Amino acid sequence: MQRFQAFKFALMPTGEQERQMRRFAGACRFVFNKALALQKERYTQGEKKLGYTELAKELTAWRNGSETPWLKDAPVHPLQQALKDLERAYTNFFAKRAGFPRFKKKGQSDSFRYPDPKQIKLDQGNSRIFLPKLGWLRYRKSREVLGTVKNVTVSQYCGRWFVSIQTEREVEQPVPQATTAVGIDLGVVRFATLSDGTVYAPLNSFRRHEEALRKAQQAMSRKKKFSNNWKKAKAKVLRIHARIANARRDYLHKTSTAISKNHAMVCIEDLRVRNMSKSAAGTAEAPGRNVRAKSGLNKSILDQGWFEFRRQLDYKLAWRGGHLITVPPQNTSRTCPCCGHVSADNRQTQARFLCVECGFEENADLVGAINILRAGHARCACEVSGAVMPPAAGTHRSASRAAQCRT
Ligand SMILES: [Zn+2]
């Protein structure tokens, strides 16, 4: 089984290397924006969108032309990758996975990617990596890189530079150590409730830092834009954002690791988090209902990092030979696990479940988790037997993996 894994480290560049990295990230951004402007212009003139090969030819012309000769100083592969990124942005847009590609701004995801492993040298013994046009860069080695290097991304965040090394290696087909199956109900009051009764408290990292962030943002707004004091205040805002992101990442990793170690099959609801967060405000023609209450909920949803959590569970389970199964969210909060009665009346409050038919009473999140586990078992069984499948609820990957699952 092939395992793809990324290893990320902080770089310790020299002053000259840092200036170069800033220039390269800028050149990639320039190429992305110029290509996007070109595509937009062609569209308004009724011309066909250019494919990657044609864009790459344009890039050669830009590099050799007199208008932007400085593009020649940047390594060519990362510039081509910027064009590939634009291609992907268009593909995602046409597949309705994302909005229309937008122009990149300076300081917003500054990064560039080296796709050719032949041009990259990794010297782990001396904690350094060789990249075209940058030379040997020292990095803070926190662990050993495993596998063969496939590509490398250099990125800047909060004034620090990082290298992410994507590798590939052959590992033995893992045999799950755990044998149990569990359902997970994701919520706002509790981050996650497991069908075995385990509860994970909410993260709310954003809420906790909200006050500090608000103050820092106010301080920034009082400064004259682009003055030295404004830059200092802005750096502080970015630092708080970074702290929030770190706390969240840490929490999500700990939780997803614990769950994937303890269980071989994990069932989770297919919540379309992006739709939920988008729908609150509504549109000008059809303004959303309960906008205030919902936007409060949405803030919490986004804050919890459910999407990232699901992504982590998916790959961590796969590493250990387990499976993530997504089930459609219909009725999971309204079905009685005891007698099977389905009614909205079963759930009188957010927290309590009380069956109007048989009187079964339990915490509502736990009931949700139990129903999700049942739905997961059902889904698994019917896919294995090749029976008619309910409309695909999971991502393609989870669904195909569910097909291999035996319970
Ligand atoms: Zn009942």
Automatic annotation (TrEMBL):
InterPro entries reported in the protein's UniProt record: Cas12f1-like_TNB, RNA-guided_DNA_endo/Transpos, Transposase, Transposase_put_HTH
Residue span(s) of domain Probable transposase IS891/IS1136/IS1341: 164-279
GO biological process: DNA recombination; transposition
Keywords, sorted A to Z: DNA recombination, DNA-binding, Metal-binding, Transposition, Zinc
Pfam families per the UniProt record, alphabetical: Cas12f1-like_TNB (PF07282), HTH_OrfB_IS605 (PF12323), OrfB_IS605 (PF01385)
Top-level taxon of origin: Bacteria
GO molecular function: DNA binding; metal ion binding
UniProt domain Transposase putative helix-turn-helix: residue ranges: 4-48
Domain Cas12f1-like TNB positions: 306-372
Keyword Metal-binding: yes
Alphabetized PANTHER family for the sequence: RNA-GUIDED DNA ENDONUCLEASE INSQ-RELATED, TRANSPOSASE
Family: In the C-terminal section; belongs to the transposase 35 family.
Entry protein name: Transposase, IS605 OrfB family, central region
